[in-house]
Amino acid sequence: MPRKPRKPCSYPNCPELTEGRYCEKHQKEIDQSYNKNCRPYSYLYNTSKWRKLRKQFLLEHPLCEECKRKGIVTAAEVVDHIKPHEGDERLFWDESNWQALCKCCHDKKTAKEDGRWGKKGRVYSY
Questions:
Q1: What residue stretches are annotated with the HNH nuclease domain (predicted)?
Q2: Which among 45, 74, 89, 104 has most CB atoms closer than 10 A?
């Protein structure tokens, strides 16, 4: 099967040809910048304690809470913080603030809370 032709990296003044949007060097820079600015609490999610508790919580709560309210049976994939913790570790580790959601419901909830793509308070018109 033929492949798409490679195109120039989207980073300003970079002549490298790539199959994606950025060349490897600039993709790393973009990813680091995104993680630093858009995911400031990622260090909490990257702990073995969180991974163990998340796994245990999903075993105990296998169905999506939001879908269950609508009468739909869907497997839960994400442990969601009901009230956003925003870096507050007490709230982050509080199991009474957790709910099991499917990815679709979690993405909808997060987009609603954060505003569109993390741009809270911004008004869009089409």
A1: 52-107
A2: 74
Strands (E), 23-117: 78-81, 98-101
Q: Which residues pair with 78 in a beta bridge?
A: 101
User: Does pTM top 0.90 for this prediction?
Assistant: no
For the segment 54-96, what is each residue's pLDDT rounded down to a tens digit? 999 999 999 999 999 999 999 999 999 999 888 889 999 999 9
Helix, strand, coil fractions of the chain, as percent rounded to 5: 50, 10, 40
Q: How far apart are CA 35 and CA 7, in angstroms?
A: 26
Q: Which helix H or strand E contains 18, and what residues bound it?
A: strand 17-18
